[in-house]
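[Meeting: bench + compute handoff]

Bench side (C.D.) handed over the final construct sequence. Compute side (W.E.) agreed to return the predicted structure before the next meeting so the bench team could plan truncations. Sequence as handed over:
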Amino acid sequence: MIVAETERLILSKVSLQDAAFFLELMNTPHWLKYIGDRNIKSIKDAEGAIKNGHLKSYKDHGFGFYKVQLKAEQNKSIGTAGLIKRDQLDHIDIGFGFLPEYEGKGYGFEASMAVMKLAKSRFKIEKLVAITNPNNAGSIKLLEKLGMSLEKRVKPFEDDKELLLFAKAL
């Protein structure tokens, strides 16, 4: 189901049929380095992550992460962008991740702007946050381009790793 469309992209809800794509995406070097190893090593693992993550979020909150498809390449799935409610954060978190060959081409900005519009208009979210690894220069640059400002350093997860928390009022 399509949730947003831009000039170059289609954002749609994730389904179990997307498991192979998510297996590939969640094992790319940047995903593993900056987001972390989610132990998705098979189609079955990816299906479990979709059921327990994406589909559960849609059901519980009405929003979640969406697959990002490139119109110019027959709607090929190239990444993900969306919203997540984390128990460890006070506000809804925006996030994104793309296959390596589609990074640095403006797709993250375009998809994230569409997600921010959805957050404000459809979900009535007044403030978004984003967390990122302090060494992830690409993510930091994109968050700043989206108009988000560094608010503080946080350690939201059990691994005790310090992350940067960006925020923006919508």
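W.E. noted at the follow-up: The chain has a mean pLDDT of 96. C.D. will use this when planning the next construct.
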